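agent: user wants the full assembly modeled, not chains individually. Plan: 1) parse entity lines 2) check alphabet per entity 3) run joint structure prediction 4) return tokens. Steps 1-2 passed, two entities, 733 residues total. Proceeding.
--- entities ---
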Amino acid sequence: MPFPPTSKPAGRRPAMKAGAVSATAMMAPALILVGVFILIPAIVAVIGSFFDFSMTSANWTYVGGANYRRAVTDPLFWLAISNNVFIVVGSVISQVGGGAILAAILDRGIRRGGVFYRTIIFMPVVISSIAVAFVWMLILDPNVGPLNAVVKALGLPTPKLGWLGDPSISLWMLLLIAAWQNVGFQMMLILAGLQAIPKEHYEAASLDGARGLKAFWYITLPGIRNVLVLATLITVIGGFKVFDLVFVTTGGGPANATQVLGTYTYTQAFSFGNMGYANAMAVVLLVTAALLGWLQVRLSRRG
Amino acid sequence: MRFRFNGEVRLVASAILGAAILAAPARAEDIVIKMWTLDNNGYKEFIAEAAESFKATHPNVSIEHQIFPGDPYKTALKVALVGSDGPDVFFNWAGDRATQLVKDKLALDITDYGDVPGGFAKVLPQGLLDSFRYDGRLYGVATDAVTKYVFYDKAYFAEHKLELPKTLGELGGLCKAIRQIDPDTIPMPLGNKTRWKAIHWMTMLNERAMGVEATAADYDLSRPADQLYTDPGYAKAFQALIDLQDAGCFEDAPNATEYAIADSMFITRASPMEYCGSWCTSALDQAGFTDYGFFRLPVMEGGKGNPDANFLVPEGYQVSAKTAHPQEAVEWLSFLVSDEQALKFAEKVQFLPSNTRLIDKAEGVPQSFKDIASEVATVKEGVNVLDALLEATVADAYMNATVEVLNRTLTPEAAVGKVREAALAVQAKK
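--- prediction returned ---
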């Protein structure tokens, strides 16, 4: 008895080819956009990081790795990195942690008005960061801001240098604003994860005597593990890329106290005209974001 | 013989006419001068009316005017000038920003275009022409100059029998007196969140401590490295700022206060004084506050400054090196600083024009504007502002040092050290 042919039937090849062509055609607009607005600028940034040039100058001088060596010895670069790390850690705790608590309350703790609270908490997510920054600048203003008035009314001392003028407080204020704006997004992600866990799991666990913390540890946490990983990675990447909120609210001040990689790169490029150095810092940021993105894909695949 | 306008002739005539139309040079109206300026009160109206008037002599030229807010403008301009769709003429501050564009060959040498009958070089005073001069050539047209004064509420001063100070020490005493009247009244709000307000103070405090001559070689980094920013006057100037802060002149958190909030404190008469620019008069008048006076920042006790020197920052226009219409662009700028247009500029924008020939005839401007114009005429020495005059990184270091002095995280000496460090780094690169 003849065996059936092991190779694919010849008649399917044109169909596959046509499928590949149409897939390519459908992906082309996105690929072109990614190429023009992400890939090419990224390549130019990498090339530019090995040159010394200003934005208004036509002369590019090759300097090898000097811009990277400069970054290593630049205390402001390290200050910006450490501020980014502070924002990343703080944001994971306040946004993912806060989002998880809010999601748990909305999933289990509130019987009425869940949609209302969800909408209220999510609302800041849809407001632009610039608008959020301006609103908070007014709230935190030491002369006319309501926060000072409330704190004084409670008989508590207000910071003498202002919420955004005191180097020891201003970074915390940025964390607060970022948490206020983004906690709703994390809450929604985690809430979706919580609601996707079948109720039968809890019922079965309950029969086996696993309730409360045990149920949370063995059912809830594994059930939302992927969502938590995703939420954490989104927050970490966002924390490294943060720019608009800092730029508008403090401009990196007072006296560089809230400088982050994004604002410092901008300052070097557009205020000081050090485009090569700014490119080198942008490449550092790019590599960091790319690594974290890769980690996100890897972890979600594993999950 | 009768000429017959038959079909063939019509056809040929039409063909010739069509060819003539196609072959004709582009219509003269096609010349468009793209102009970028800041968004100041009355500026848009002034340029629109001037553009209409300009058509009388240049019917072929249209002006396309775009306005920008201050800080984004600095970045947008650099990007645009490097690109292919930048402005033909643009606003700029005299000083390092204008010079940098010249060095990068982005600003056009307009000496020859302006040095003709009716050209701007025949109209403007030498001092203002020099503000945009580089290596003996002209790279800009000064349109106006801004200055600063301590504005004060006349009614408040009369009510509490307060006298105008003659020295910085007396100014501090005045602040103390105001605090005694009402401890919650901020005598002179600063509003230094965006850092430029305090650098304006330092500009004049340096002058009051050392004089313009003594600082010039530090500002342009021409002094030998071992002497750069070593004059004790710099620390003395920072100390003067601290003394005023200690006298209660400013709000508690000047580095967290927006300049607009500080301005509004004076405009709403919550504060009786503010060190404000000549541009503030139009905001005050619009708010209906006209009962105010002004005085120069007083001299420093033991200082080496010139009492006749005052803050005077020329501003103007430069022409892009990429413009396709340099002749028309400069003719437009020359038109803007002509006697008639300078007068209209004063009336509409209420800025002090670079051409003051007809300033006395200005109508519809508040008396304070005319008073300031008269006062500026008595200034013997102009003091350019540090954030426009200094190299960008040195200016940034100066602004940060001033922030830290106000926050008391740096002593005056340490603050000067930070500035010197930045200046030495830039000098070493040169």
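agent: reporting back. Chain B has two domains: 28-145+314-374, 147-311+383-429. Confidence is low (pLDDT under 50) at residues 1-5, 20-26 of chain B.
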